[in-house]
């Protein structure tokens, strides 16, 4: 060890000792955050999609159940009024009701029914993703009215809005994990510093001891009263130094 | 909020038929001025220039029933793109009620309208209807405007069925207020959209225009008309040639190119529009511009004079621009002075020229743009005829009219001559008084009767 260096450089040497530890901490945190992020993105995305489709199906079923009497009474104005109320729900972009023969009885399209819808199977109730030019991307679900003999309700949910919701949820999760990562890293630096400080003190004591032998002021002996391993080591070093001095003075007086 | 005295001044000789409620400081100041200037105001009223009445939005506190008046609750469009409809309907009714009130009222009671603005939007209409039903001073509901609004108000009437509140003469020809489960809560005077569209379809088919398409407002009103066209076409073994829609509230300035192109692709022989005047005028404008030279028909709700006014405005050749228009009406032409009701309409509209209703809130929604009244219109004539009919029904209820006696009084009307060339008849199974449809085409800046479809629109 090179003597006569400042306490600051002594501390740097201690940091070097913990460099790998710190790197290990950071890497571990990074892997944990990445893994949790990926898992949560996957979970959130899947759950939101499932919930979206489930809500759409509930709405479609609700309309289908409410439409039976209205359809049987041929009251299409009331039917339109009914779907107009549902289409005010944020995520619903369109609703249309087809008869058992496939005729469009009521819908919410402006200025007209898109060709993709006109060409689709009006009795299908399976969830299907549609990309309609000029309107966007949708997931469409259907529900039969009176088991399909009175027609079918189709509800189109905005996939763009779903994507936005997923991105927003993911963003929130990732932001939280990033905050945890930063706090973890800062905490690990603080803990490493906490662990390295006694070593740094010991290093300083040894340096002072060495300089005292060269004629400088005697070292501060506060470290010698510590009751931990660093105190034991300081006392051991002091003992060794004293023994060294005694030995040197004995051999000097003998010559 | 406090109720101010009516704007009829203190003399009691002339009475405005519209109740005045005051909501803001400005309104209160105006009301105070009205009371303070009672005598001059009465003079103005006597001269036939009543001050603008107030129209309300949202809930207002009710007030005790007055022995000397009958209050009719109104929720209609006094703001927004369809305000001409609510305003002209109101003006027509007001002309007649002013006349009735000036002559001692009905069995000693003035007829007063309590106005609420719904802007032709369903949710405000529902809120207004609840307020009006819960207001003990309101005797019945009158002159509602529009299908999307009325179809949502009908369940409210059913919910409060114990109140025995009836809706009279809504300005819509839709079916929900004519059929179960809500038909029992409403009485209609005008013919239905089903009758109007059937008449238009029949006439088009008769002259060889078999490919009939529909352009409609995408709501309950549009769907009602769409269903009427579909049914009428089906009766002849035909189907609609095509359809295109627009969103309620669309303004005249909006492009309708997409809708026109959708229909153009289906090569129709005629288009029936089920909409309001702003959007239908925009459609007719763009159809002309894109070379769709076929008859463009509108039903009575459109507001013919407002439609024509928009289409002729700033146009170098307005007659050529409106050449293909044909409108169905549910009242006779206001130019047909051979009819007693039309003569009376002219006389009372000239005498009173009722101002449009207003309020700070309505003015704000209308962006301070003053409404220009239309001297004569089918809509105000319908309002006038509605007022005549309701006055007769109230008269038949005697000195102490009660809600429980309303239906019975209506059913007594079995062969009543309203002065429109068609007698009015009601019954438990007949809740629509008039049945006749009239067809009109533009001639200059007015609509006149269409007598020869073949000559005007026949396929050569």
Commentary on this structure:
The complex is a heterodimer of chains A (255) and B (460). In chain A, helix 1 runs antiparallel to helix 4 (159-213) and helix 4 (159-213) runs parallel beside helix 5 (229-254). Helices cover 64% and strands 13% of the residues of chain A. Chain A is α+β, with helices and mostly antiparallel strands and 255 residues long. Chain A has a five-stranded antiparallel sheet with strand order 2-1-5-4-3. Chain A has one domain (14-195): Beta-Lactamase, CATH 3.30.450.20. The radius of gyration of chain A is 38 Å and the shape is rod-shaped. With 460 residues, chain B is α/β, with parallel strands linked by helices. Chain B folds into two domains: 25-190 and 336-424, Response regulator (Rossmann fold), CATH 3.40.50.2300; 193-329 and 438-457, Rossmann fold (3-Layer(aba) Sandwich). Chain B has 16 helices and 14 strands. In chain B, the strands form three sheets. Chain B has a seven-stranded mixed sheet with strand order 7-6-8-9-10-13-14, with helices on both faces. A five-stranded parallel sheet of chain B has the order 2-1-3-4-5, with helices on both faces. In chain B, strand 3, helix 5 and strand 4 form a beta-alpha-beta unit. In chain B, helix 4 runs parallel beside helix 5. The radius of gyration of chain B is 22 Å and the shape is globular. Mean pLDDT of chain B is 86; it is low at 1-51. Classes of the chains: A alpha+beta (255), B alpha/beta (460). The interface between A and B is medium-sized, with 18 and 28 residues.
């Amino acid at each position: 060890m090179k003597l006569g260096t400042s306490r600051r450089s002594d501390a740097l040497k201690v940091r070097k000792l913990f460099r790998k530890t710190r790197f290990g901490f950071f890497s571990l945190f990074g892997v944990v955050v990445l893994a949790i992020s990926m898992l949560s993105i996957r979970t959130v995305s899947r759950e939101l999609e499932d919930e979206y489709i489930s809500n759409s199906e509930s709405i479609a079923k609700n309309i289908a159940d409410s439409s039976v009497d209205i359809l049987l009474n041929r009251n299409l104005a009331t039917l339109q009024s009914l779907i107009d109320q549902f289409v005010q729900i944020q995520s619903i972009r369109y609703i249309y009701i087809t008869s058992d023969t496939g005729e469009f009885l009521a819908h919410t399209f402006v200025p007209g029914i898109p060709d993709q819808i006109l060409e689709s199977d009006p009795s299908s109730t399976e969830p299907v993703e549609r990309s309609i030019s000029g309107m966007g991307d949708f997931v469409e679900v259907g529900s039969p009215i009176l088991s399909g003999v009175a027609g079918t309700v189709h509800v189109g949910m905005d996939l763009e809005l779903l994507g936005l919701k997923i991105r927003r949820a993911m963003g929130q999760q990732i932001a939280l994990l990033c905050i945890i990562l930063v706090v973890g890293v800062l905490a690990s630096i603080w803990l490493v510093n906490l662990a390295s400080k006694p070593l740094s003190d010991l290093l300083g004591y040894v340096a002072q001891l060495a300089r005292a032998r060269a004629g400088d002021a005697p070292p501060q002996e506060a470290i010698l009263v510590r009751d931990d391993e660093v105190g034991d080591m300081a006392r051991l070093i002091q003992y060794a130094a004293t023994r060294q001095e005694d030995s040197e003075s004995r051999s000097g007086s003998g010559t | 909020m406090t109720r101010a005295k009516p704007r009829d001044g203190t003399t009691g000789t002339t009475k405005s038929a519209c109740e005045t409620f005051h909501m803001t400081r400005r309104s209160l100041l105006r009301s105070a001025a009205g009371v303070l200037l009672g005598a001059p105001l009465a003079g103005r009223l006597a001269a036939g220039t009543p001050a603008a009445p107030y129209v309300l939005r949202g809930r207002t506190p009710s007030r005790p029933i007055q022995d000397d008046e009958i209050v009719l609750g109104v929720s209609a469009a006094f703001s927004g793109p369809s305000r001409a409809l609510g305003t002209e309907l109101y003006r027509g009714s007001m002309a007649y009620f002013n006349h009735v009130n000036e002559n001692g009222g009905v069995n000693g009671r003035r007829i007063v309208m309590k106005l609420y603005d719904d802007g032709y939007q369903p949710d405000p209409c529902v809120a207004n209807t609840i307020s009006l039903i819960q207001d003990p001073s309101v005797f019945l509901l009158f002159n509602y405007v529009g299908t999307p609004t009325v179809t949502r108000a009908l369940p409210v009437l059913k919910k409060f069925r114990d109140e025995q509140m009836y809706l009279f003469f809504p300005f819509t020809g839709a079916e929900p207020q004519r059929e179960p489960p809500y038909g029992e809560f409403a009485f209609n005077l005008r013919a239905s959209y089903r009758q109007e569209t059937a008449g238009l379809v029949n006439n088009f088919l008769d002259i060889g225009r078999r490919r009939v398409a529909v352009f409609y407002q995408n709501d309950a009103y549009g769907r009602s008309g769409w269903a009427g066209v579909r049914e009428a076409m089906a009766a002849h073994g035909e189907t609609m040639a095509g359809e295109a829609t627009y969103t309620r509230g669309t303004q005249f300035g909006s492009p309708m190119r997409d809708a026109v192109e959708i229909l153009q692709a289906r090569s129709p022989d005629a288009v029936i529009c089920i909409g309001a005047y702003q959007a239908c005028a925009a459609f007719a404008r763009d159809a002309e511009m894109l070379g769709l030279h076929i008859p463009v028909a509108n039903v009575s709700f459109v507001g013919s004079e407002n439609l024509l006014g928009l289409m002729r405005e700033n146009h170098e050749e307005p007659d050529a621009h409106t050449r293909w228009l044909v409108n169905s009406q549910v009242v006779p032409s206001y130019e047909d002075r051979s009819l007693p009701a039309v003569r009376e309409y002219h006389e009372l509209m000239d005498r009173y020229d009722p101002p449009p209703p207003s309020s700070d809130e309505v003015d704000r929604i209308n962006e301070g743009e003053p409404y220009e009244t239309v001297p004569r219109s089918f809509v105000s004539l319908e309002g006038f005829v509605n007022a005549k009919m309701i006055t007769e029904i109230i008269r038949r209820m005697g000195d102490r009219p009660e809600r429980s006696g309303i239906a019975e009084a209506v059913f007594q009307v079995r062969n009543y001559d309203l002065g429109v060339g068609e007698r009015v008849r009601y019954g438990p199974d007949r809740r629509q008084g008039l049945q006749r449809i009239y067809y009109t085409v533009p001639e200059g800046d007015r609509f006149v009767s269409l007598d020869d479809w073949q000559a005007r629109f026949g396929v050569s």
